[in-house]
Write a structure and sequence with these properties.
single chain, about 700 residues, mainly alpha, 5 domains, three-stranded mixed sheet, 27 helices, 11 strands, Cullin family profile domain-containing protein, Cullin_homology_sf, Cullin_homology
Length: about 700
């Protein structure tokens, strides 16, 4: 008869019918699986199994189980005998042979069965009895964690995931996580036993151990997509960050963040769950910041804030905003605004000096949460000019960049003033180059000062109280002295370059001029105001003296009060620079050419010690401060009543949250009356409620 096999191959047999007993079929599979021997043709076995399909799957799986148990027995015996072998390679080799056997056995399974289900059952027998065998587990752990076996490890794990995803997820992931935790603790605990180091350095070293371990084994297990295997290690890293802050001052912690920010952002944060990110955020922003705020200097806290903002702004965005607000409140409550400004200025100078411009701008965010930014703006504006006096174009470019970052800290008017200040200096540098070229062409370079720098400021931009007494030099009919002639020439050229649509006001009581001359006792070097220099150069080699009337009527002194002119002269006389004779017939002023020599005697400070100008400037500053306070109160009032009407007490209570000064009833009432008189708000006399006027 013809016996068709499963694949349609016709096998001729002279035997009319081949019937096999269950024992014979069992023996066949036992020999096939254990010894690779076949007593019958596969087609004959298949035909006999089709008579009773229920026995096929069970028969195969039972014999496979016995076969796998034999493999496990051999592996255990090898371990007891001390025969060294890498279980990774053994499992790969065994799985390869086992896969071939499974492939052969698929021929005999029940046609109604699912091939994938059969394969899963077969592979589960091997994986559950061999790979997860408790006796082999410790050796398997050691071989699995061997860095040099990375390729084989990834191959084995990928194969297991492919043949039985459920076993891979339920057992392999948990087993690998346990291996990682065990080995990471071993590596970090070595320090306490072998290396006697300072206690405050231990968490730093342990952190580095964990990072190194994590880096190595992320690469070692790169085939694993489930990053929860590193969860406990990452949790330990977060705890170590907090331990570093607990055992070290803020300076050390700042350096720690600088050195390890890449590790934190690369190997920790991307693999954190939302809850873990919240924990890390709480650790760094809340616990560490609150601890340091109570015990460290403002500069150290600012460095901490800069580091956190620089390296973690995208991750901890909300918390950094909260920290910015809290720092602003902390600085105001402790009267540290001036100190913050000095820190800001110092860091700006260091940035320019070291050519590193990526840190100081983070401090601007703190300023944005001040109720009154005028204090810090005035200091910043004043220091801005001092930084720009070096004629350094690179610095100008940097200052423009800083202004763009200050838009969140200062209002539009203030930022415009900063930009305009920078523009004034830049244009002054350009105009100086034009003047020098002009003088070179006219061959009059010898008539100019050896080193000079003049800054042309735009009207009402600088808002300094010192710019109160202006002098025009371009209108002078006569002018004696090189400095006076140069300043007049400068004024005329400036006017002509602007088609006489502009003119220069000179503030001769600002700036400085260094003059040197010889006496019979040696060289005299003086540091003077431009105003003082213009007076002194009246006594050149061709003039023996000038009278008191001539001095009083000097044209560049005409803007100054008589008392200031007299004090100006008194300073020269008190320091033996000039001498005055008060005879009946004459009242002469002469230069003292017998004065002792000196090196840069500063007459600027001496003049302002007796001048009434600083007093007037201070009084003007007090008025401006009072006006600023009133403006702040008005802003608060407008903010609170723009949505709903409020009575006096409600509005006063809400406005008390101003954090730059203590609000009193007098200032609040004055601000309210001003807003009512300006028709910004109105008072309903029946309900006594204040509301915003809408036009």
């Amino acid at each position: 008869m013809d016996i068709p096999d499963k694949f349609g191959v016709i096998i001729n047999s002279t035997t009319p019918d081949l019937k096999m007993t269950k024992c014979e079929i069992t023996t066949y599979f036992e020999n096939l699986i254990k010894n690779n021997n076949r007593m019958f043709m596969p087609s004959i076995i298949n035909n006999n199994l089709s008579i009773d399909p229920s026995i096929s799957d069970k028969l195969i799986l039972d014999n496979l189980t016995d076969y796998v148990k034999e493999i496990r027995k051999n592996l255990r015996q090898n371990l007891r005998r001390g025969i060294k072998s890498n279980l990774i390679n053994v499992f790969i080799s065994s799985l390869t042979n086992y896969s071939n056997k499974v492939y052969q056995l698929e021929y005999f399974i029940n046609n109604t069965s699912n091939d994938d289900t059969f394969r899963v059952k077969c592979y589960y027998i091997f994986l559950s009895l061999v790979v997860s065998d408790p006796t082999l587990k410790e050796v398997f752990k050691k071989d699995l964690m061997n860095i040099s076996s990375k390729k084989e490890t990834n191959f084995l794990l990928s194969k297991i995931q492919k043949i039985n995803p459920e076993f891979y997820q339920d057992w392999c992931i948990g087993f690998i996580k346990g291996c990682l935790n065990s080995y990471s603790n071993i590596s970090s605990n070595l320090i306490s036993a072998e290396y006697p180091i300072s206690k405050n350095l231990i968490p730093i070293y342990e952190f580095s151990c964990y990072v190194k371990f994590l880096t190595e084994y992320k690469d070692h297990f790169k085939c694993i997509d489930d990053q929860t295997i590193f969860g406990d290690i990452i949790e330990n890293l977060i705890n170590k960050i907090y331990s570093v802050s607990e055992h070290n001052d803020v300076k050390t912690f700042n350096q720690f963040i600088k050195n390890n920010n890449e590790s934190i952002t690369t190997y920790i944060i991307p693999y954190l769950t939302k809850d873990q990110i919240d924990d890390l955020e709480t650790t760094i922003i809340v616990k560490v910041y609150e601890k340091y705020k109570r015990s460290e200097s403002l500069e150290s806290i600012c460095d901490f804030y800069i580091n956190i903002s620089k390296y973690f702004s995208k991750i901890f965005h909300i918390s950094i905003i909260i920290m910015s607000k809290d720092m602003a409140k902390f600085i105001i409550d402790n009267s540290l605004v001036v100190e913050l400004t000095n820190i800001l200025i110092t860091k700006l100078e260091n940035c320019i000096k070291n050519d590193t411009y990526d840190t100081v701008s983070y401090l601007f965010n703190i300023i944005s949460y001040f109720d009154d930014k005028n204090i810090i703006f005035d200091i910043y504006h004043r220091e801005l000019m001092l930084r720009l006096l070096g004629d350094n174009v690179k610095d100008i470019e940097y200052e423009n960049l800083l202004v763009t970052k200050l838009t969140r800290s200062f209002n539009c008017r203030q930022c415009y003033k900063l930009s305009k200040t920078i523009e004034d200096v830049e244009k002054s540098i350009e105009f100086k180059k034009y003047m020098v070229d002009l003088l070179v062409k006219a061959e009059k370079v010898n008539l100019t000062p050896s080193k000079w720098s003049i800054v042309n400021t735009t009207y009402n931009i600088w808002e300094s109280t010192v710019f109160d007494i202006a002098t025009r030099l371009d209108t002078l009919k006569s002018c004696s002295g090189n400095i006076c002639n140069f300043l007049k020439l400068y004024s005329n050229v400036y006017g002509k370059t602007h088609k006489n649509s502009r003119y220069l006001n000179w503030y001769l009581h600002t700036g400085s001029v260094v003059i040197s001359y010889k006496t019979t006792k040696g060289d005299v070097v003086l540091k003077l105001l431009p105003l003082q220099a213009l007076v002194l150069e009246q006594f050149d080699t061709h003039v023996d003296y000038i009278t008191m009337d001539q001095y009083i009527n000097l044209p560049f002194l005409s803007s100054y009060e008589m008392v200031e002119r007299e004090k100006l002269l008194d300073i020269f006389i008190e320091n033996d620079i000039l001498a005055r004779t008060c005879d009946i017939d004459s009242n002469k002023i002469t230069i003292n050419l017998t004065r002792q020599s000196c090196t840069e005697l500063n007459l600027i400070d001496k003049f302002f010690e007796i001048s009434s100008l600083p007093i007037a400037w201070h009084e003007e500053e007090l008025v401006q401060t009072a006006n600023n306070k009133e403006d702040i109160v008005k802003t608060k009032i407008n903010h609170h009543i723009k949505t709903k009407a409020l009575n006096y007490n409600e509005l006063f209570t809400l406005c008390k949250d101003i954090n730059v000064f203590k609000l009193d009833d007098e200032l609040f009432k004055k601000s309210l009356d001003s807003m009512i008189s300006s028709n910004y708000i109105e008072l309903n006399e029946e309900s006594n409620m204040y509301s915003k006027l809408v036009y």
